[in-house]
Amino acid sequence: MIYTFKEFSTNAIFSIGNADDLRAFKTAKQCELFTFIWAKLEAVELIIDNVPITVPANSILALTPIQYLQYINGKHAIVYQFNREFYCIKDHDQEVSCVGILFFGNTNIPIIHLDTVEQLKFDTLHEVFIDELETEDNIQAEMLRMLMARFIIKTTRLLKAKEGITESPKSSKVDLLREFNYLVEQHFKTEHSVSFYAEKLFRSPKTLSNNFAKLNRSPLQIIHDRIVLETQRQLVYTDKTAKEIAYDIGFEDASHLSRLFKKITSISPSDYKKRLKTHS
Fold first, then answer.
1. Looking at beta carbons, which pairs linking 13-16 to residues 24 or more positions away fall under 8 Å?
2. Is the pLDDT at 125 greater than 90, yes or no?
């Protein structure tokens, strides 16, 4: 059974599925969502960024939205997926953020092995996830984010302890995408041009664009999407004015941020704020 949570105010999406959901990846394609694949009773065979990967039984694999996933074989898996708006819109410590060790902060493909004790802990956490997905109230979103934060903290701890980390051949293109996303997370409030990040990566802007050619978004779109995500976060979780938010994200003229926000979301920041109040 697939459980899906959606939140209008932030465009957040979170879902829990099973191995049947992986069949959508019989042909390699981008994950587009942050993804955890938990192999339960047997191994799951995948191809990640053109590299064959076997996720052993009782292990969890972490993937970023930019990675290409192809499902080969394996049953009895649990699949957690969420977008940036679900988890990354909240403030988190760097290690468990959307650019933490599990995701863009790790150049290898992280596979976390669960011993018998950890299996029981994660089984319990999974049951709480399901219970919360079946409980619809005005704090459901916050509860689900707290549970995902706990899930990420637990898997990060295991990864840091180097329990069952699987090394995989590095792909220069994948590493470049990870580094770019990591730099954007660090500098998006002050640096809005592709040239800044290209210089940091010792690449030309054209080289960056060529490396992103197979993605649905260009380097500039990734920068803009991150700016808009931060704008949404502050509109939802703070009482700042549009002008204050614009200044915080590096825009001297609030109208420039407003135009960018409307271009990507189809509504202005002020209208977005009004909708939040309407749906609260």
1. 13/81, 13/82, 13/83, 13/85, 13/86, 14/80, 14/81, 14/82, 14/83, 14/86, 14/87, 14/144, 14/148, 15/79, 15/80, 15/81, 15/82, 16/78, 16/79, 16/80, 16/126, 16/129, 16/130, 16/133
2. yes
